[in-house]
Automatic annotation (TrEMBL):
This is S-formylglutathione hydrolase. GO terms for biological process: formaldehyde catabolic process. The keyword Cell membrane does not apply. GO terms for cellular component: cytosol. Its EC number is 3.1.2.12. The keyword tRNA processing does not apply.
Length: 144
């Protein structure tokens, strides 16, 4: 429930309607979807290789979203899993968001080679990438 944001980089080939390989990048704890683009300058390499880059946020955000008393619980710390306990379960459904909602949206709305989608990440995002790739091998053909 609630609004979720994501970043996407489309190379010239995708903008021209050509289907391209796609990588989902999961960022580390307490960062935002823009961090990868800002710090890694990944668009330059993606442009050269004709790759679409998708960067979901790490967790749901907003006043209605549960926040923990400790710095590593709550907004910024979704761990790309589905929470099962209150008060987190209402909004923290990050696994479903990435592998169902966002995955399907990207395939439907952008020029994606569905058989060439990979996932990678750093720190908390690396944990999420490995977990999701192992759980959904039919969706993610590579993992790092």
């Amino acid at each position: 429930q609630g609004e979720s944001k994501f970043g996407i980089y489309l190379p010239a080939q995708a903008l021209a309607g050509q289907a391209c390989p796609t990588l989902f990048y999961l960022v580390r704890f307490n960062l935002y979807r823009e961090t990868f683009a800002i710090k890694a300058h990944a668009q330059r390499l993606a442009a050269q290789l004709g790759l679409i880059l998708v960067t979901p946020d790490t967790s749901p955000r907003g006043e209605q979203v549960a926040q923990g008393d400790h710095w590593d619980i709550g907004q910024g710390a979704g761990f790309y899993i589905n929470a099962t306990q209150a008060p987190w379960a209402e909004h923290f459904q990050m696994e479903s968001y990435v592998v169902e909602e966002l995955y399907d949206l990207v395939i439907q709305q952008f020029a994606v080679q569905a058989e060439r989608i990979g996932i990678f990440g750093h720190s908390m995002g690396g944990h999420g990438a490995l977990t999701l790739a192992l759980k959904y091998p039919e969706k993610f053909k590579s993992v790092s």
